[in-house]
Design a protein that fits this description.
Length: about 90
């Protein structure tokens, strides 16, 4: 992903799936595309990022990847351009 949207959500009442769903819905509304990739800080993942492989979120079609370049409570969400290239 070369271009994405940075989304902040520190709501302690919302779980990770809800936060990603909000970010994806806003991205879809603003840019007219459904996001399929989301980077977040490893500490936001279950078991503090112990699972190093990409995960699928409860939101169908959005791949979750840990990245220390993204601060906690931020989500870098967008479209993976490599997924459609062949």
């Amino acid at each position: 992903m070369e271009i994405g949207m940075l989304w902040f959500d520190n709501d302690p009442k919302a779980d990770l799936a809800e936060k990603i769903q909000k970010a994806a819905a806003y991205y879809q509304q603003k840019y007219g595309q459904t996001p399929d990739l989301c980077f977040l800080h490893p500490t936001m993942l279950p078991q503090n990022g112990a699972e190093a492989v990409p995960l699928r979120s409860p939101l169908a079609g959005v791949e979750i990847r840990p990245s220390k370049r993204v601060l906690p409570n931020y989500f870098w969400i967008g479209v993976n351009r490599q997924a459609g290239e062949g």
